[in-house]
Amino acid sequence: MQLRTTRNALVRGGAVEGFPLILNGQYEVDWLTLEHFLDLHRSVAVSSLKLYATHLVDFLAQLEVDGLNLDDVTDEWLIAYKNSLLNRENSSGIRNSSNYASQVLRTVVHYLYWLEQNKFVRNIVGETKHHKVRIQASERGIKHPLTKNGAGSSKSIVTPRKEWIETVKTYGPEREDLTERFELMIDWGMSAGLRAHEICALTISQLPVRETAVNALKEGRKVYVKLTVTKGSKVDNIPISPLLLIRTWDYIELYRPDITEWFSKKSKSEYEVYREPDEIFLSSKTGKAVTSRSFSNSIRSALLRAIEAGDLTVDEKVWTHGLRHNFTNNLLKGFDAAGVKRPEALARQATRHAHEDSLENYSGERFNEDFNG
């Protein structure tokens, strides 16, 4: 079994790059997984599909090694499969973590359940003793013991504190315009709960005008921004602080032109045309939108400099998605303090998760009195 991705495929009438395909030893498409991915694509980003595809390639390859078919999968076999994952080393020569093995099993169990629901297999996955793989199904999704991440030796996720994040900011780029960009991107993650790729995809044209933010600030209300690039490719309106929007317009008008003007002059001298992107945050090296990898690397580099200087320890970790953890915990603690009914439901909507169960990985500091934002 091997994984391939498309360069330019039409999926439901739209061009999609990087759509995953699983091929067998004869380079034939595995049609069941393709049908599964097409179904998931209605609500899941292509990047997530590729992750699921890598999991299923491993799963199908293990079945092939064991000389088994999908109909032969049982709870006992899945236990042995998870143990084999835990005993393997990844590309860095480090043993797979319990979290990784659980993620793979989660993908596998959901795939098997999809096969059962669509009648590609029978009596494999279900809630009765007659099923080979026992699950619990509800409106929130399906659960299986092997998909839970055991405590093991893996460390629990500690949500970055506000003071750690502020310290990391001080170790960002030295150039003034890049400092402003770095700190502003961090604040979009920490105070608006955006993911890295959502921050990098923000455009000028989608922002409310400055006057709207100024009026909202006077009236003490939030401003809504429409997100067009999200994890599930679903358009969402999110409330943000008017101060964050005003600061963003300050950056756009005062600092962003330093990058666009330099690349315009450079292109003109080389008899080329520079078309200014609509994205807000541009790279000083390419003149195009900052990538999520570049943004994450910049936070990582700043963190390492802060640790080297002794201003943070190795346990006081700040990472890009950790900004979203900070946002979620502050949100839940605020709801709890205000006595809001069903805070998890509201937090799920605000963080744009599909299920309340997804908040579990984000809310580790919710009831920690020492966590102050």
Secondary-structure blueprint:
Blueprint: E1 2-5, E2 9-11, E3 14-16, E4 20-23, H1 31-40, H2 46-65, H3 75-86, H4 98-117, E5 125-126, E6 133-134, E7 136-138, E8 141-143, H5 162-169, H6 176-192, H7 196-200, H8 210-219, E9 223-227, E10 236-240, H9 242-254, H10 256-269, H11 292-308, H12 320-337, H13 343-351
Parallel strand pairs: 5-6
Antiparallel strand pairs: 1-4, 2-3, 7-8, 9-10
GO molecular function: DNA binding
Domain Core-binding (CB): 28-113
Keywords: DNA integration, DNA recombination, DNA-binding
Descriptive report:
This protein is mostly helical and 373 residues long. It has 2 domains: 2-147, no CATH class; 162-361, hpI Integrase, Chain A (Orthogonal Bundle), CATH 1.10.443. The protein has helices at 31-40, 46-65, 75-86, 98-117, 162-169, 176-192, 196-200, 210-219, 242-254, 256-269, 292-308, 320-337, 343-351; strands spanning 2-5, 9-11, 14-16, 20-23, 125-126, 133-134, 136-138, 141-143, 223-227, 236-240. Strands 1-4 form a two-stranded antiparallel ribbon. Strands 2-3 form a two-stranded antiparallel ribbon. A hairpin with a 2-residue loop joins β7 (136-138) and β8 (141-143). The longest helix is centred in the first third of the chain and has 20 residues, at 46-65. It is globular. Residues 151-155 have low confidence and may be disordered.
